[in-house]
Design goal:
By secondary structure, the protein is an alpha/beta fold. The chain has 15 helices and 14 strands. It has helices spanning 19-38, 62-74, 88-98, 105-116, 120-134, 138-141, 158-193, 211-219, 262-267, 269-276, 292-305, 325-334, 349-362, 376-385, 406-416, and strands at 8-16, 41-50, 79-82, 101-104, 199-205, 236-243, 246-252, 280-286, 313-318, 339-340, 364-372, 387-393, 397-405, 421-423.
Length: 424
């Protein structure tokens, strides 16, 4: 685990090209400041840069580079963090011109994930994303060896050779991690087969929206909670008994954030499979945040990238105990079917329970079956996988009324359809 980067002075730089981006720029930099603080950085100041177009070589123009360089030197800045992802060449050129370490939003998010990874799966996923990010940027990391290569024009020097060695090592590690994740995914699918008959509910939302607090409040469990970005990376699953007749598997997934690195989403595919396979998705948003709607949009975009578009879902606005009344009014107008609650204060939780129950009942079916008594194994299977509502027996057959999820009935009907008769 990385050591805390205490008291390292950093400068944040954000840029905007369109008017829409300008309106969001301050908000994005505030979020980047939270990300930097999570790593223990001391954010000295922020620079907002208005661009006519993005410079292919340095992202921002030469005039602003000089301004940032002078300010960073005067304030003894140790690192400059850009809110936008920089290409390897842009990072390299900026470091040469400013003579200070350059990072971007993606690298900061990856560093946070590296720190917070606990399980073998999370560590493998994060390491893979980090290596894929690092591979095209090795040249910049080896610029300090240029002094050892014998001067301008010399080729095949020690630095270049070491870069090639490192590239091979990283590619080998990437292949190994991908193979490991394939094994983990197979194991997860094997485990998942045992849970196919359960109604699965997945909590998704922006990081720090209160998903884990909500899970604890609903299931009376003790999921780890800390007031920081990406406090946990591993999916937590709890069996939740909503009432005497209905139980669900509730999963709490890794939090989302704007500009979440695509390779990180890809690496966490196995973890996020709980969302993809869910029967119902609960999208949790923080009603106390002025960025509430933008954060919810980011969650929707990531779900779309995952191919999760048509899943049934409930929007939950959390933290009404600390709400902004203006945002609350807008939320009710924009999302009239949403649920408003406070997981921390356990306010209006019953509204969410009732909504989940409604979704479950929409996915249930009640059927009456006529079963010859010689097919006793069929009756045993029905008792095992469904709720028996009523049963009557005569000399040669039984009339049994069952209730179960549609997906369970589809499976049973396929397996046992020759051993019973469906009756009205």
């Amino acid at each position: 685990m990385e050591k805390q980067k205490e008291n390292k002075k950093v400068l944040l730089v954000g840029s905007a090209v369109t008017n829409l981006e300008k309106r969001e720029l301050t908000e994005h930099l505030e979020e980047l400041s939270l990300l930097a603080s999570t790593l223990g950085y001391e954010v000295v100041d922020t620079f907002e840069v208005n661009l006519v177009k993005i410079s292919a070589g340095t992202y921002i123009g030469s005039g602003k580079i000089e301004e940032i360089k002078d300010y960073a030197s005067a304030m003894k800045i140790k690192e400059i963090i850009f809110d936008n992802e920089l290409s390897p060449s842009q990072s390299k050129n900026l470091e040469k011109l400013i003579d200070i370490k350059i990072s971007d939003r993606t690298s900061i998010i990856l560093d946070i994930f590296v720190r917070h990874a606990r399980t073998k799966e999370a560590k493998t996923q994060v390491e893979l994303a980090k290596l894929e990010y690092l591979l095209p940027r090795l040249t910049r990391l080896w610029t300090h060896l240029e002094r050892q290569t014998g001067g301008i024009g010399m080729r095949g020097g020690m630095g270049e050779t070491q870069i090639e060695v490192d590239r091979r090592l990283i590619r080998t590690k990437i292949i190994r991690h991908k193979r490991e994740l394939v094994k983990i995914e197979k194991h997860r699918k094997t485990q998942g087969k045992r849970r196919q008959e359960e109604f699965k509910v997945a909590l998704v939302g922006y990081t720090n929206a209160g998903k884990s607090t909500l899970m604890n409040a609903m299931t009376h469990s003790h999921v780890y909670i800390k007031d920081e970005l990406f406090a946990t990376l591993d999916t937590t699953i709890r069996k939740w008994e909503i009432d005497n007749d209905h139980k669900v598997l509730l999963s709490d997934t890794v939090g989302f954030i704007r500009k979440l690195p695509p390779n990180l989403v890809s690496s966490f595919r196995t973890t996020l499979s709980e969302v993809i396979e869910a029967d119902l998705i609960i999208k949790v948003a923080d009603i106390s945040s002025e960025s509430c709607f933008a954060q919810l949009d980011s969650v929707e975009e990531i779900l779309m990238d995952m191919g999760v578009v048509d899943h049934p879902s409930i929007i939950v606005f959390n933290k009404i105990d600390n709400m902004n009344k203006k945002i609350m009014k807008q939320a009710k107008q924009k999302y009239p079917d949403a649920i408003f609650l406070s997981a921390l204060e356990k306010l209006r939780l019953q509204n969410l329970k009732d909504s989940i129950l409604d979704h479950i009942k929409q996915n249930e079916t009640t059927i009456s079956l006529k079963i010859p008594l010689k097919n006793m194994q069929t009756i045993i299977e029905l008792r095992k996988h469904t709720k028996i509502i009523s049963e009557e027996y005569e000399d040669e057959y039984g009339i049994i009324q069952i209730n179960c999820l549609n997906k369970i009935w589809a499976k049973l009907n396929k397996q046992l359809r020759h051993s019973f008769e469906v009756i009205d």
